[in-house]
């Protein structure tokens, strides 16, 4: 009896490409302008069907204070709503050879209303006539469609 040994070598050929799974061109993220440096805007997730080593890179930061660290898009500086209300960022996903996916997304800055509260004393003669103006000093920024509340004690 003869035994025939056949050795088969299987090579997996995959057409599947690594790509972002939780961000795309229509992704918009809203960040308050008073968020601290290091604030995580989004944790970037991606598929990796070939299990290759992949790298995330911020190709264009839109002129803003953004960085990628440990798969997180985060703030590398402070935002200023008055300076820029929106940023368009480009992020690539690449292996050793080439870019596998590139996404452009928007970060919109939400205004933090800066209010300086006045907690001072005003002196007024108790016999002042009705209609006398009481000195009151306050600063309100961007109060469109908002109500300022104050109390006289």
From TrEMBL:
Main localization (coarse): membrane
BP GO terms, sorted: homophilic cell adhesion via plasma membrane adhesion molecules
Coiled coil: none
TM regions (residue ranges): none
Matching PROSITE patterns: CADHERIN_2
Gene3D superfamilies on file: Cadherins
InterPro entries in UniProt: Cadherin-domain_protein (IPR050971), Cadherin-like_dom (IPR002126), Cadherin-like_sf (IPR015919)
Compartments it resides in: Membrane
Signal peptide (residue range): 1-18
Protein name: Cadherin domain-containing protein
Source organism of this protein record: Biomphalaria glabrata
The gene coding this protein: 106050741
């Amino acid at each position: 009896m003869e035994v025939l040994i056949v050795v088969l070598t299987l090579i997996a050929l995959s057409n599947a490409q690594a790509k972002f799974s939780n961000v795309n061109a229509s992704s918009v993220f809203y960040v308050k302008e008073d968020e601290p440096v290091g604030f995580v805007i989004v944790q970037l997730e991606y598929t990796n069907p070939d299990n290759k080593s992949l790298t995330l890179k911020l190709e264009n930061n839109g002129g803003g204070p953004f960085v990628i660290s440990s798969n997180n898009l985060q703030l590398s500086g402070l935002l200023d709503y008055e300076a820029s209300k929106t940023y368009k960022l480009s992020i690539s996903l690449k292996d050793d050879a080439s870019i596998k996916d590139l996404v452009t997304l928007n970060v919109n800055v939400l205004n933090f209303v800066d209010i300086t509260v006045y907690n001072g004393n005003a002196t007024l003669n108790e016999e002042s006539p009705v209609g006398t103006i009481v000195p009151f000093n306050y600063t309100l920024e961007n109060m469109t469609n908002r109500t300022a509340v104050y109390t006289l004690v």
